[in-house]
Amino acid sequence: MTLTQLKYAVCAAGENSFNDAAKKLFISQPSLSGAIATLEKEVEIQIFHKTKTGISLTAEGEEFIGYARQVLEQYELLDAKYISKKETKKRFSVSMQHYTFAVQAFIETIKKYGMEHYEFEIYEDITYTVIENVRNCKSELGILYLNDFNRQVLQKLFTEYRLEFHPLFDCGLYVYMSKNHPLAEKKQIKLDELMEYPCLSFAQGSHNSFYFAEEVLSTVPYKKIIKASDRATLLNLMTGIDGYTICSGIICEELNGTEYVAVRLDSEEKMTIGYLVRKDMHISETGADYLASLGRFKDKAML
Question: How many secondary structure helices (H) and strands (E) does the chain include?
Answer without folding.
Answer: 11, 13
